[in-house]
Amino acid sequence: MSMYCIGDIQGCDEALGRLIEEVDFSPSRDTLYLLGDLVNRGPQSLQVLRRCIALGDAVRPLLGNHDLHLLAAAHGVRPPGKRDTLQGILQAPDRAALLDWLRRQPLARLHTTAAGERLLMVHAGVLPAWDVDQTLALASEVEAALRSDDLPSFLATMYGNAPAAWSDGLEGADRLRVIVNALTRMRFARPKGAWISTAATAPARHPRACCPGTTCRGGVPQTRRLPSAIGPRRGWWHGTT
């Protein structure tokens, strides 16, 4: 039995198929974690979602910013951009089933290996002040909004960079927005603070910030209080047996 983690498929179904064939992935034996951004940019977002659903419990995805963008576009909150490749899903006959499956995926997952190592998986990063249990609990708040009947209202308030700092006292849309930004969009976080940024700038321009998505050791971002965390924000894969 093997566990594989793959990040940022972004609509590249043929490449995904080649990769899981290369590692001899078996749905009856192995587990495949997909670490966000299943869709968009690549030409086969529709095929990626259909593959994931067909593989059943062997695939355990989590949501990234592009997956949330798909839900926003589908509900009329944000129009698809020039670089988006989401029309195949939006025009598919099984669109409703695909979107319903997507909205029910989590923003964070915890996996415990046979050796007892705990792996916290997110798409972007985790704020240094959050421990594993708090991260999972905060993710569940967003997940509840995604699965609610009031999904369009949540999506309409999801976008934005403010508040730019976490506080346990945050409520409502502001609270959920910071959680979404951290788990799906964050690129930099100060080690001793809660400041977050979604700017796609080089780490060298932020010498006093730690980067949850690119400054890693063996796929483990250097955030304190977390035994092990995976949050790539790049095309990235890792496997264990």
Describe this structure in words.
The structure is a single chain. This protein has 241 residues and is an alpha/beta fold. The chain is built from 8 helices and 11 strands. The protein has helices at residues 13-22, 45-55, 65-74, 87-90, 95-103, 132-146, 151-156, 172-185, and strands at 3-7, 31-35, 59-62, 109-112, 118-121, 188-189, 196-197, 216-217, 220-221, 229-230, 236-240. Strands 3-2-1-11 form a 4-stranded mixed beta sheet. It has a 3-stranded mixed beta sheet with strand order 4-5-10, with no helix packed on it. α6 (132-146) crosses α8. The protein is globular and about 45 Å long. The chain starts with a strand and ends with a strand.
> What is the number of helical segments per DSSP (H or I, 4+ residues)?
8
Secondary-structure-based class equals alpha/beta
- The total of beta strands comes to 11
Instruction: Give the fraction of residues assigned to helices.
Output: 25-40%
Distance between the termini: 6 Å
Strands side by side in the biggest sheet = 3-2-1-11
User: Which radius of gyration do the C-alpha atoms yield?
Assistant: 17 Å
Order of helices and strands: EHEHEHHHEEHHHEEEEEE
Percent of residues in beta strands? 15-25%
Shape: globular
- Uncertain segments are 213-232
- What average pLDDT do the residues reach? 85
The major β-sheet equals:
4 strands, mixed
How would you classify the quaternary structure? single chain
